[in-house]
Amino acid sequence: MSEPYLIVFSGPAGSGKTTQAKALSAALSLPYFDYDTIVQPFLLGIERRYGLIEGSRSAFYKEWRSESYSTLLEVTKENLKSGISLVISAPFTREMEEKDFFSRLKAESGASFRSIAFSLFPSSALRLKMLRQRGSYRDEEIINGALEYAEYSVKKAIWDADFVYDIYFE
Length: 170
Fold this sequence. Notes:
170 residues; five-stranded parallel sheet; 17% strand; globular
């Protein structure tokens, strides 16, 4: 069995990571796991049952971030351990700043795999346009705070993937 690949698409909400990841997984006939698809039903259930923290969806998602990412990464590690290549997408904002992210993932999974990381960074104007077009209730706070949103910081990924591609576009 050849060494599997983990292909990661990261970037802020509205950057196109889901669109690109789906296209690549279809082209390569690889399984695709999306952060929103995996964790959203649970988070929506918690939000409906208990309400938002401090009345803010942003604060709510930050509160549940560790559990949400753990869910995606456990599914990822299980597949890699079974020798299955896959494509995943998530914002990975913090993880992009972890130099040993992929090394740690390899150690935790006990799997040997090659990693490719794509970080997508559209211009603020394009990202805001894409968020408005997709019309998700999750994006309301970002769209309503467009002035603060326009200033989101673009940080170069420092993680230790075998291949790293930072893509900036207008």
